[in-house]
Amino acid sequence: xxxxxxxxxxxxxxxxxxxxxxxxxxxxxxxxxxxxxxxxxxxxxxxxxxxxxxxxxxxxxxxxxxxxxxxxxxxxxxxxxxxxxxxxxxxxxxxxxxxxxxxxxxxxxxxxxxxxxxxxxxxxxxxxxxxxxxxxxxxxxxxxxxxxxxxxxxxxxxxxxxxxxxxxxxxxxxxxxxxxxxxxxxxxxxxxxxxxxxxxxxxx
Amino acid sequence: xxxxxxxxxxxxxxxxxxxxxxxxxxxxxxxxxxxxxxxxxxxxxxxxxxxxxxxxxxxxxxxxxxxxxxxxxxxxxxxxxxxxxxxxxxxxxxxxxxxxxxxxxxxxxxxxxxxxxxxxxxxxxxxxxxxxxxxxxxxxxxxxxxx
Lengths: 204, 147
What we know:
The complex is a heterodimer. By secondary structure, chain A is an alpha/beta fold. Chain A contains five helices and ten strands. A nine-stranded mixed sheet of chain A has the order 1-3-4-5-6-7-8-9-10, covered by helices on one side. In chain A, helix 1 links the parallel strand 5 (about 75-80) and strand 6. Chain A is elongated, with a radius of gyration of 18 Å. Helices cover about 55% and strands about 10% of the residues of chain B. Chain B contains seven helices and four strands. A three-stranded parallel sheet of chain B has the order 1-2-3. The longest helix of chain B has 21 residues, at about 30-50. The radius of gyration of chain B is 16 Å and the shape is globular. The chains are: A alpha/beta, B mainly alpha. The interface between A and B is medium-sized, with 33 and 31 residues.
């Protein structure tokens, strides 16, 4: 599959290579995006066939099996990670990422080193808003205020219910983020909301 | 039936797909699979509606192929082996979806099947799997084919 760019797996497993000598021949996959959602992966995945992967999407996975891929990543998407230490490891070991997608409430859970990495490296920051509870708002504004590379913030409302989208707490959060983006001249976008998707006018 | 230009028929398909909506597999795999399947069901209905629409709908059906069970994969390959016309359509496949939430996907010999699919569908850019056990080498580039 010489044109294959994206491999997206949900459940199932990545099986270890066969052990017979005849079957072990070096190979390279052309994929640039790898997405793993609750996939059973060997504790140390052989990443040698994946030198071209630049975008990694991990949902309910652990950091260890994909560790060797991280230094090459330009884009990282994480969701449903039960251990915050895994998110910290992923962010801090992805030394070249410029694009990060993370559950908004995890912002308050990541450690200081991860926050610093976000401030230093990330130019496109996607926040998955899910069941709005207000946590992480002050951390987020402090990250935005201290960011050195941030150009675009995207609020992703895919998992936010219609009623949550209209809650005063969420509207207040929007106001605060808008203000923080305006101060730093960062673009703010809304995606996957029921209404009001697109670039947000920070002057309004 | 009134003659309709191909471009307009394709636009009708696009609008049907827009009405059904698409969902990124990574955001919600169930919705993604359900919507793609619904679109394919609509294309099947279009294909049966008139002779003029059949080939156009078939070609569109081949853009995104869903193989929920292993026997569907076998059936897909059998169909391609037996028909030059379908092998022509198969060059349009850009996306392959294997597996389903409702059944375990038998993976014995899957590597060989994928090698053969790669020959018939050289333009695949995206593979999505659900509840499928794979080895990375199943998706390797076929160097013999490239040579």
